[in-house]
Amino acid sequence: MKNFENIGMTAELNSFFNDNYPKGLKLGRVALEHKHSYRVWLEDGEYLCTLTGKLTFDAIGREDLPAVGDWVAVQTFPGEMRGIIKGILPRKSKFSRKAAGQVTEEQIVAANVDTVFIVNSLNDDLNLRRIERYLLLAWESGSNPVIILSKADLVADLKAKLDEVSSVALGVPVIAVSVLEGIGIEELQAYLAPGKTIALIGSSGVGKSSLVNYFTGFEKQLVQEIRESDDKGKHTTTHREMVLLPGGAILIDTPGMREIQLWSSEEGIIESFADIEQYADGCKFRDCSHKNEPGCAVWSAIDNGLLDENRVVSYKKLQKELAYIDRKLDKKAQAEEKKHWKNISKEVRHNSTHKRK
Ligand code: GDP
Ligand code: ZN
């Protein structure tokens, strides 16, 4: 069916497979996840696979189980299109969702994505902070972000918007796209080369399905639908979690990927790390950094097995990143304010100094 280079296999991956797995096992890529089984692309077709007991048994968390996009070692049986997944090859990148609960679980929603398209609609208010958060998410995943500003046919001041977004996304390509008018599509082609795996993230309604439909070759039908819609309507996508695009790239579009949500504000963080914050309230020092201060309640919670240390590490990391973004935005806001002030009377200036920190 597919030749392996076409679905993203590399020489390194192949030699890793040959060096680390017994002869007789076959290499495959997970295309779809059912409840207890997986659709896996092998060289000679799509197999329905289950997990070997050992893999399930050894899994500490859900991240140790296969996800869409994973390369896996499969045992097949003569004459059957069924198999058993015996191992997962190391992931080059991964997107995960953290399911909060007593123990936070990392659930991988897409693995081995080369490029992630961060889709933002040009006709909505462009939220630079949101874009920055998506960028962090992309960098953290290990895949390369490309920012897509969609519905370019709906705006007049395209250049200004592009500049605005580029200013917060140094080194990241920013591409204005309209599937309706075919704007920017050529630029996107560079990321859709054969064997490259792509995925999309972005809020609902920004045009992800439209892009997917466009890539999968439904553009005529799509343009008609957009013309007829009032920019709110939903159209149907023929859903498959991993698809081979006509141009040769692989698209991963899982429901989980669509549900990846951002912590939209400081409040959001406090919410998702509420347990850590709660312990932190009990630290001896108000400004405890939970490193090695005496009387640190966060550490005693870790020591007592009440908190997962990894979670505390990501909490700290996220706080650091947010502080960085805040500083950067502050600087920009300050610069803008300064410009503004030049034209304002002394009195007004006095008021606004006290308005914001
Ligand atoms: P999703 O929720 O991110 O998957 O967004 P959709 O693909 O469902 O698109 C949301 C709405 O935006 C639909 O009504 C589309 O017809 C419309 N839309 C998508 N792309 C474009 C575009 O390039 N131009 C215009 N004018 N509308 C678009
Ligand atoms: Zn502490």
UniProtKB/TrEMBL annotation:
GO terms for biological process: ribosomal small subunit biogenesis. It comes from the Bacteria. CDD domains: YjeQ_EngC. Residues 103-260 form the CP-type G domain. One of its GO terms (cellular component) is cytoplasm. GTP binds at residues 150-153, 202-210. The keyword Nuclease does not apply. GO terms for molecular function: GTP binding; GTPase activity; metal ion binding; rRNA binding. Residues 111-258 form the EngC GTPase domain. It is found in: Cytoplasm. Zn(2+) binds at residues 283, 288, 290, 296. The keyword Kinase does not apply. Its EC number is 3.6.1.-. It is an enzyme of class 3 (hydrolase). SUPFAM superfamilies: Nucleic acid-binding proteins (SSF50249), P-loop containing nucleoside triphosphate hydrolases (SSF52540). Residues 336-350 have a biased composition (Basic and acidic residues). Binds 1 zinc ion per subunit. Belongs to the TRAFAC class YlqF/YawG GTPase family. RsgA subfamily. NCBIfam families: ribosome small subunit-dependent GTPase A. This is Small ribosomal subunit biogenesis GTPase RsgA. It comes from Mesobacillus boroniphilus JCM 21738. The gene is rsgA.
